[in-house]
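Two proteins were folded this term; both appear here.
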Amino acid sequence: MDNITYFATYTLMKPQDSKSYRHIYFTCFFFIYSLILFLNSCLCVVIVLERALHQPMYIFLCNLCLNGIYGATGFYPKFLHDLILDSYVIPSYMCAFQSFVIYSSIKCEYSTLAVMAYDRHVAICRPLDYHTKMNTFSCVVLLFICWTLPLISTLIALILSNKLVLCKNHIDKLYCDNWSIVKLSCGSTDTNNIYGLISISFHFCIFAVIIVSYVKLAIACKASLECRRKFWQTCVPHVISLVNFSVAMLFDTMYNRYGSSDFPDDLRNFLALEIIIVPPLLNPVIYGLNLKEVRMRILKSCINILKKP
């Protein structure tokens, strides 16, 4: 084991034609990051300031937006820094930290979507028990689970990766993630593979449970016009967010595990970035436009700001 190499830094993939277009890339990604911060922050501020929105559904929505900001901050500042300097190098400890932030955010989003599905199931199918089941203590416990399980599971994955013997230090991606680090190993990665497959299977089961619950909700709402209206306003945004995020997660997983270097660079970068760009942009737009209470409060806040001298 004397010939083991410990890398202090990793090199990341360069964007295509980075020297020629890095200023354009910087402008585009800075705009996207600013938009993510603005949209998600606005929705969070409206929910916090409006007492009428201090309900479980909106609290979980606020958590979804905060998580979007958290995950985006794990990628955009470092990438924008790389574009400015045209240097795509990252220290090993920062690589581990970036991987932790991005993937704990991804898992937290899935957990939050599952909790939001449970909230809607109770609200529509068992309305008389809603305030009993979704009291303040229950909301705190569910939010705690939404963050704790993803943080712990991601930390375990990184600890397993940290034990690997690495032979290379180039990550063929625009940012660090755990599986990209695993692929640099020249030793056995069976433990990492098994843990990864368990994690993927667990989240697939969550996806299946959520879909089944929404199908049951749709069936239960067929008999009542009011119930159908409530389903359309509160559940359809959840389904859109879930499908959007699941497709992004599928792209990312397929790219990480089975992506080929023969893929065109544009396609590879799209697969890598879709999960970071689309969900945090789409979620606040979907909920802000479709949920009547949120839409009204946002419009009210905008009108109040415009009326001020």
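Next, the second protein.
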Amino acid sequence: MEAEGLDWLLVPLHQLVSWVAAGAMVFGGVVPYIPQYRDIRRTQNADGFSTHVCLVLLVANILRILFWFGRHFESPLLWQSIVMILTMLLMLKLCTEVRVANELNIKRRSFADFDPHHFWHWSSFADYVQCVLAFTGVAGYITYLSIDSALFVETLGFLAVLTEAMLGVPQLYRNYRHRSTEGMSLKMVLMWTSGDTFKTAYFLLNSAPLQFSVCGLLQVMVDLAILGQAYAFAHHPQKPAPHAVHPASAKAL
């Protein structure tokens, strides 16, 4: 009787916790990019942020949405992908505007040039949108033709998870190439690390499929490597070259 009497409190409380958890799942992934977005707007310099991070997340989340059509998963994960795509487009828009404003080379580069040397380094945000739409169209058409194949659907889901696991690699390479983490938001990387650690622990404790756990561990390792770069480059900064290029005109990935 006492347990039944508490139902009026426990049921709404359980519902509230479920809503909060779903909201955290949907919007939690974009939180690490808020400090980076603010830093870029404040400094008007996007050299410290690799826009290939946006590319990785756009591809991963588009593939995840297509995977949903073949194998439905929880709605919060679907909405998370939609919110992340919109967030990455906002990051691309800001980075493109800032880079073009600071770039000494005024030659226009566009997606329609189909120049692999300038892939994902175009002069207009509209070119990035065209590329994303083209990829979505091609991937969507292939998915439509192969949706009845269980092997294709599972492979699509694996590719989505694996692509997301590569999230930090562009930033890791960018830091290595420039021998510096200047302009990179340390808060963003710390949030990456804490989020990926929590997610991986969840996978391991709940006996998730092996590929989820492996990809989660890979993400944590990349995050820790980036934090290691931040420490190493801060304590052993590279000596400036005699004719170093001004940071405002340097091209991040």
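The mean pLDDT is 81. The chain is about 70% helix and 0% strand. These notes refer to the second protein only.
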